[in-house]
Design brief:
Number of helices: 12
Strand content: 15-25%
Helix content: 40-55%
Oligomer: single chain
Number of strands: 9
Number of domains: 2
CATH superfamily of the largest domain: Spore Coat Polysaccharide Biosynthesis Protein SpsA, Chain A
Low-confidence stretches: 212-216
CATH architecture of the largest domain: Alpha-Beta Complex
Structural class: alpha/beta
Amino acid sequence: MSPAKPDLCVVMSVRNGGAYLPPAIDSILTQTFRDFQFLIMDDKSTDETAEVLARYAAQDPRITLLQGEGRGLAAALNLALEKTNADLIARMDADDISLPERFAIQRDWMTAHPECVALGTAVQTIDADDNPLRIRKYPSNPADIRDRLLMRNCVCHPSAMIRRSALRQISGYRENFLTSQDYDLWLRLLSVGDIANLPDVLLQYRKHNTRTSDSANRSRQTLYSVAAIASHLGQQVNAPQVDMNDITEETVLSQLCALQPLMAQTEYAHAFSRHVMRFISTAQGLSGTQIRSLLSALSTKDRLKVKLYAWFR
């Protein structure tokens, strides 16, 4: 491997992750495939993260430490991606554990499937004390993944290996997505190639109350994921795109309203209804008129679900 052009770059962003950082880094450094660059972005940590990272960087020359700007995960990952020219990018989170064969298996698969731009894996969830919880498997066939992504995220972000050329084609992560960055990324990557998942469990995914997906503010996560799918559906039907640089309930509502008359007779009608229902069920600032307008896009069954949710919320 030429040091100037590594085949693989591992990209990790961490903010106040000192508690789980050592086993996460150890799981990367002990991979059976060893020829990689390891970029770790410290995104304004205030705990012991900096000390832990400095200790590891002094021991292994594959590690390069970077300083983030505290602007969130998407911005940190984009900054890191600017520092590598590797063909393949392996994502890793600072609280997960990659199994020893992960990179070798994923790299070989990506080499054999040039049409694939991203590859996830099955994962085993673990708790804060490393106890195994359950195994999560995802659809593996690219066609099935395209269909499933219309409904929900089905690729585990920290398990993914992605072609840097594909990331460059779509200009990387959208930094205005403060959560659901990965869902938005997969939907946009579909425009340049296939996405697949391996059935092999190659990552232990830690579940604890500090993960973004487990935070109390689930309405915010719904807002951003609906923004991602609304943008994607709009491109599929050539709808006018609403400026969503500032993702708010108002901008997402505008995008959904622009899509509403275009969805009924398309293959995307069911997916659109599902996400309208999710949006109505969690949005906090919609008026009665706005809710009634969006409800008209739903089936009778889905309208009843929304009303029941609103009643018991």
